[in-house]
């Protein structure tokens, strides 16, 4: 399944595995938790959770009709297959054809934003390498203006090349500030803005670029802009490209690209057909998933228990499958430790709540990022499991910790007000307020800044060696992107009737019209 279908920290597990399980008419044993119960800490008689004060999210009833979900089907048929394959080969030739450096970078960018990168991984990789290997004269052509320089910087960093931030020094004045006349180039400002989200660690020039480009883009008079450029600027300011989910971006960019004067009609048609083809595959997967009686899960009253049951159900199947696959390699100790860590985190949170303790921001974050979801996702996406990788995951590497922090912090920014209103624990915003005495507005700004800094650390971590391979390695930034998508305007997970619903309909239900 595509990332937009993710609905919990555990849902990075393979939906294909779950659908296969369901198609065999096997169902998890649903335990009746409607009766009152009490949870006690191990080695302690102290009650940490009782039925008299049970908290519930009280989410609204599900608005999806499962009969409709099970009936999903696409207009894409095999009659399109021959034309699709022909266009695919033509685009492959287009990417590999000789062209000017800037033209090549813009083509790579268009192919990627249209959602076609996965189709042409080798050709794009070679094209990017050509940009890296070009002559000094060719390279100079990409440093002529801010647009080409920023686009080169972004594309190369996207593909793992460590381009130095100093390439932007030529656009600074004698005081090391970006030159004021750059703001007259709207396309250049937009390119600089998007590039600035690929900063690493303490790159001050990239930080300055983000502040400079953001300020001037926000200060533009929209009435004086071309309608297409105004749409691009508003889209970027709403959320930068680097933080967006690929499929969500592709659906938006197909419509936007259609309005471009210099669009490549072949590329647009292939992207449209490919989107509908992928959508048809996802529809089949969702239809299979819906055959598992999700209504039974809805009868369980407590949201946390639902999540744990689903996670336990999936993890149990992972254990059986991968233990057999690895021919005796024992993963049980790793999973046991991960589950123990998760339970300890939940118990600590419960103790804080019932004792009225207000954790510091550091205490809160240290307890709020258990990585069980990554551990189970590793088994779902990796063919060659290694002990080295399992040990690496268990040591909580920065690349995963940052991804989990993005989920936690963006969740807090979107949901903390509602959660506090129903009596939940304090979140990162309130922890910072307690630590510093700051107002909620200042605390929110700080947490938002922490999100930006965490993305920079994650960007840097993506350049470091690790024992992983695709597609698992991309799961780390993709979890952050999923969180940004769900919680951008509020609780898009718990209250999905608005933008989340629109995303899902555009991704899974409505095909892109063919010209």
Would you give an account of this structure?
This protein is mostly helical and 515 residues long. The chain has a domain at 78-263: Terpene synthase, N-terminal domain (Glycosyltransferase), CATH 1.50.10. The protein contains 23 helices and two strands. A two-stranded antiparallel sheet has the order 1-2. Strand 1 (39-40) and strand 2 (47-49) form a beta hairpin. Helix 3 packs across helix 12, helix 7 (146-158) packs parallel to helix 8 and helix 19 (398-421) runs antiparallel to helix 21. The radius of gyration is 24 Å and the shape is globular. It starts with 14 loop residues before the first helix and ends in a 6-residue tail after the last helix. The relative contact order is 0.12. The model is unreliable at 1-53, 295-313 and 315-327 (pLDDT under 50).
